């Protein structure tokens, strides 16, 4: 990360992805200046992600003077109403509701277990096994590095999570998150076995 005036900028992975700067919105020309500064520092930023819709509205027509705007739906963040998510109600969650019903019918002896520093190695081992088939070995290396950093900073970062066991004591999935407010959690890692 780097600080630009009163803005925090986070560069991901190999330096090609920049999280939209946190703080008061920078005008597009200043955002372009920030990208140049980061590139001059050796990080080849190619994309800025999580661009708020309000930014495009506020700087209507000016953003495209400096940037090409593109949206990849598979990479969108999804926000769900907690009540709908808890009850799986509404048409948007119909597919999830059917998947959950099928999962519950096919899986026995489900247990939801809080992740603690003591059982975290078990969760990390499970995650690595799920990623072994990933074709991008560089991704696997980065994921292992991120998980080891998470493990070293579990308590300091206020991380929480749970894992699910089924069919005995086999780990079949997990989620690791941290609170961003008293009602919102940010999911950092989440994996599930494709066998269930």
Structural summary, described in words:
It is a single chain. This protein has 196 residues and is an alpha+beta fold. Helices cover 34% and strands 24% of the residues. It has helices at residues 28-40, 53-58, 82-87, 94-106, 120-131, 137-152, and strands spanning 2-4, 7-12, 17-22, 47-49, 111-114, 160-166, 170-179, 185-192. Helix 5 runs antiparallel to helix 6 (137-152). The radius of gyration is 20 Å and the shape is globular.
User: Could you list the spans in which at least 5 consecutive residues all have pLDDT below 50?
Assistant: none
| Rg computed from alpha carbons, rounded to a whole number of angstroms | 20 Å
The shape, in one word, is globular
Percentage of residues in helical conformation: 25-40%
**Beta content:** 15-25%
The rounded distance between the terminal residues' Cα atoms is 38 Å
Describe the main β-sheet briefly: 4 strands, mixed
Offer a quick outline of the entry.
With 196 residues, this protein is an alpha+beta fold. Helix content is 34%, strand content 24%.
Any chance you could write out the topology, listing elements then pairs?
Layout: E1 2-4, E2 7-12, E3 17-22, H1 28-40, E4 47-49, H2 53-58, H3 82-87, H4 94-106, E5 111-114, H5 120-131, H6 137-152, E6 160-166, E7 170-179, E8 185-192
Parallel strand pairs: 3-4
Antiparallel strand pairs: 1-2, 2-3, 5-6, 6-7, 7-8
